[in-house]
Structure prediction request, 566 residues.
Amino acid sequence: MKPLLSAARATRRPGFGRHMLRLVLALAASLSPLALQATVPVPPDPLKRVELSESERLYVALTQRITMCVDPDWEPFERINAAGEHEGIAADLLRLVAQRVGLELQLIPVSSWDESLEASKAGRCQILSFLNRTDSREQWLRFTAPIFLDPNVLITREEHPFIADAHALNSKRIALPRGTMVEERIRRDFPNLKVVLTHNEAEAIELVSARQADMTLRSLIVAAYTIKKEGLFNLKIAGQIPEYANALSIGVLKDESILHGILDKGVRSVTPQERELITNRHVAVKVQNDVDYALVWKVVIAATLVVIAVIAWNRKVGELERARAALAEQRMEEERRARLEQSRLVALLSHEVRTPLAIIDGAAQSLKLLLDSGDDERLRRVERIRQGVRRLTALTSQFLAKDRLDDETLTLRPEPADCAELLRGLQGQLEDGDRIRLTIEGDCSLRGDANLLEVALRNLLVNALRYSPPGSVVGARAVGSVHDVMLAVADNGPGLAPEVRQNLFASYLRGADVQDKPGAGLGLYLVKRVVDLHGGAISVSDAAARGTEFVITLPKAAVAIDSLGS
Prediction:
């Protein structure tokens, strides 16, 4: 699939994770030069006092403690932990406000946000901690100035296109937590969307990942936190509705006008630096761009051992064979550990950059919408940014797939999978997918890991499109028989010389004659691993006309192979 991989000149690509990180940082810097400037937030000052009126001071002296209801499951904004304590960004901000006005907060235990709303309407809690202003809530609440601002973004699966206008979507399912501002406004403003109610934010995002909903509209901070915590890396930010930004305030019962004035003054005393410091306690954004000194020292130690071995060779010729064997064993172990460290580093970096890449792509798409259609130069620059993001996203997907497939404890998760449907889906998702000519024969369903099979087929099709002449047709066949399914992908490239095929499925291996093509040398390695896990076989041959054809044969029944060593 990769033409003319010269075995004599094929080289591994060391330090690939480090190069990838530099590209990410350069891309982020090109979008926002100020984003990387260091700031040192001033720690919040709980001893700072807010100046109150005489009636407000009297209220504080007579009341001292006020009751509060919260959302018990809204991380990282707030939650009630196992010990019954209020914690999170909202908890820290409200404690700071209460300390500055001289009040204590008494938490009313609840099990859901709906229960908090009902308790507030019944007057059992004087304030609600962290919520948006809506028409229905203004019937019984007063709202302070916003204590926290955060955009809401549309979260979809990776294959979903960018959403420029949610009004243009028809019958799409949007998952939303019940009783929220977003639910109320979406029902009013977007009758074209079908609302799927959930109990909390995490459940809404998980429904999208599991294909039980098409999208959700959630806080950027909550979405990034949940995606990273739950490992839902098949999701992306596909757009936003600017007028739906979160302006989170404290809700105070309408008959508590003096309390409202007191808390509003407390909220206005909180500085942006204090909000930033409190936010960073719970949602830390880390950019690791320093040198991995542990790996450097391992390399230095290995090199030192080699020098010592050479000296010993010259001094003790009689011990040559024994020293060589010991050194070879040690070097093999060190090389294995170094590869393991590199693999873990690359996987870690790939996890960390997925959400920033999605944010960068979303920002670039938003910028494109704001530019004048005749501004060709700036539109080209925005497109170059998006092309870079797409390339890095594809690379991180391959690194994460390799990390999973290299795990010796990996267990295959067989389920009914239709290979014909997988090919049709990829034909619709891939760029230039209209160049793929599909041929389906017989029943192509089997029991296997659908996600891993999609990874293998995607890599074969992407390579076939990449190395075939522009505009040429790429062939893809699925043939089902009684006991197995045969899958074949043929390109129209120059073909492969027989002597280079023996190393075709090695990782990080690329020929010098394809360095101008994007890629990391992982595609065919991942294909081979997936096929082996399913107890199948893969072969490569010359296509009927020209180019190369890869043929995979998979058993229809689930195999008993749980894992494979790396």
Remarks:
- The mean pLDDT is 78.
- The chain has 15 helices and 21 strands.
- The CA atoms of residues 364 and 444 lie 40 Å apart.
